[in-house]
Specification:
The structure holds 2 protein chains of 2 kinds.
Chain A (H helix, E strand, L loop, with lengths): L12 H16 L4 E12 L4 H12 L4 E7 L4 E6 L7 H10 L3 E12 L1 E3 L2 E6 L2 E6 L17 E8 L8 E9 L2
Parallel strand pairs in A: 1-6, 7-9
Antiparallel strand pairs in A: 1-3, 1-4, 2-3, 4-8, 5-6, 6-7, 8-9
Chain B lengths: L2 H12 L27 E12 L3 E14 L2 E13 H4 L14 E16 L2 E14 L12 E11 L3 E12 L10 E10 L12 E13 L3 E2 L2 E2 L5 E14 L2 E15 L6 E12 L1
Antiparallel strand pairs in B: 1-2, 1-14, 2-3, 3-4, 4-5, 5-6, 6-7, 7-8, 8-9, 9-12, 10-11, 12-13, 13-14
Chain lengths: 177, 282
């Protein structure tokens, strides 16, 4: 009986290729790598239906973008991304600028692990490292979660100019087991 | 006098040229406006313009392809699909980026050199336009005018409820074999309004109405190096237009009526100018 799936055969070339690819991916993305799940980006200057259609089309071309909703009256776009999407915030804002409009502050949902470094909190999203600013007056993220390797679902505010290093302000967070 | 020659003579006295480069699709029908395409975006405009005087009428069909080189720099190429009546006999007037003179191929660049976005749905911006047109064919009477250069500037404001633009420009013609079209100078003003009913959110249809005003001053044509007495003059036109947008489609229609006319000679007066354009954004 012939096996229809070549990578299931012991020692097949395809299986070796897949294994090599997975190893390369593991090395390219550190264990604490995260990704954006949703970005709610405010846009100034967008006034007409073709403007919205152009923004929608540009954003849908980006890697891992599942859905785009554009509102002219609210001046914003909500971009939903697949888990593991490598699309960065900068790419989303650049796509908006290429349509002739001005991205402003944004809100984002980020699934990532949080690390501490030099007394600051850090996350990585789509290959870009961000410093986290805890909510003013808040308790911050429990220390048990930090550097634990557990993923945290973060709601963050992203200023128009995130700064250097780019900084995100935590609005809320959730963490599982 | 043959019918074709009569038509040509009628055309010569009927036409008082009306220049302008306008942003078809996003903006008003007859007036200068600032919007440009997104970087890498293409659009197609297919349009018809009819112009009628007391003595004759002309219709032209033209096509324009546009490309956004950057979000602030747009390249346009417009060419004729057909002409009839006075438009076949005489290459004027203009009627927007795509409605360059009849029987001409025209390339133009629109550069939005200033742009600010002070709030949601609002922009203040200014643009420059530079174009070159070349007659595609000889006209009746064996006339083939020279190359024309067009330059214009426009500034304005766009929002979800109100629009306005002010602009002006000039088109200068070269002479060829003693034939030269009159240079023209113009100014445009437009006020636009999106009724509350049509301020629903994307992807619902998006409609707006404009009131457009155009002032034109045209110099005398030259035939065999001699200025034609019944050519050129001044005119002020005013009228409404409407722009409808749905997704990647746009349709605009407008009509202008003369408010005042001062021809240099004994030309018949223009009665109206009407335009219809269908746009698709790729």
């Amino acid at each position: 009986m012939t096996n229809e799936f070549p990578f299931a055969q012991p020692g097949s070339a395809l299986r070796r290729r897949i294994y090599t690819f997975m190893m390369a991916g593991t090395l390219a993305f550190p264990a604490w790598a995260g990704s954006w799940q949703q970005l709610d980006q405010t846009i100034f200057g967008m006034d007409c239906a073709p403007c919205a259609a152009g923004v929608e089309k540009s954003l849908l071309k980006l890697h891992g973008v599942k859905a785009v909703h554009v509102s002219l009256n609210e001046g914003r776009t909500v971009v939903s991304l697949s888990p593991g999407s490598r699309t960065t915030l900068a790419q989303i804002r650049e796509a908006i600028r290429h349509n002739g409009f001005t991205p402003q502050d944004a809100r984002g949902t980020l699934l990532a692990t949080v690390q501490t470094r030099n007394g600051s909190l850090w996350v990585e999203a789509a290959g870009v490292q961000f410093r986290l600013r805890p909510p003013s007056g808040g308790t911050g993220i429990p220390s048990a979660v930090l550097d634990s390797g557990h993923e945290v679902l973060l709601q963050v505010l992203i200023p128009e100019r995130p700064g250097d290093p780019p900084t995100l302000e935590i609005v809320s967070f959730e963490h599982g087991a | 006098m043959t019918t074709r020659r009569k038509q040509f003579v009628l055309a010569l006295v009927a036409v008082m040229t009306a220049p302008a480069v306008r942003a078809e699709g996003h903006g008003p029908a007859f007036s200068l406006a600032t919007p440009t395409l997104a970087r890498g975006q293409w659009s197609s405009d297919t349009g018809v313009m009819r112009r009628s005087s007391d003595a004759a009428a002309g219709t032209r069909f033209r096509q324009m392809l546009s490309h956004g080189v950057t979000e602030d720099l747009q390249l346009n190429l417009a060419f004729p699909l057909g002409q009839s009546g006075t438009d076949r006999a005489f290459p004027g007037p203009r009627g927007g980026s795509m409605m360059g003179s009849a029987e001409t191929v025209e390339a133009s660049l629109q550069w939005r050199f200033h742009r600010t976005a002070p709030g949601i749905g609002t922009r203040r911006e200014s643009a420059l336009v530079l174009g070159v047109s070349e007659p595609a064919d000889r006209l009746p009477g064996n006339l083939k005018p020279g190359t024309a250069v067009h330059a214009a500037a426009v500034t304005g404001y766009a929002s979800r409820s109100v629009y306005w633009w002010l602009g002006g420009g000039a088109q200068i013609h070269d002479s060829r074999d003693g034939a030269r079209l009159g240079d023209f100078y113009y100014a445009t003003a437009v006020f636009g309004w999106r009724p509350p009913l049509f301020r629903q959110d994307y992807p619902k249809p998006d409609w707006r109405v404009f009131v457009e005003g155009v002032y034109e001053r045209t110099g005398r044509r030259q035939m065999s190096g001699i200025p034609a007495p019944d050519s050129g003059g001044e005119a002020m036109l005013l009228g409404p237009s409407v722009l409808g947008l749905y997704g990647h489609w746009g349709v605009e229609a407008g009509v202008l009526w003369p408010v005042s006319q001062s021809p240099n000679g004994a030309q018949p007066e223009e009665r109206y100018r009407a335009k219809l354009v269908l746009t698709y954004w790729f």
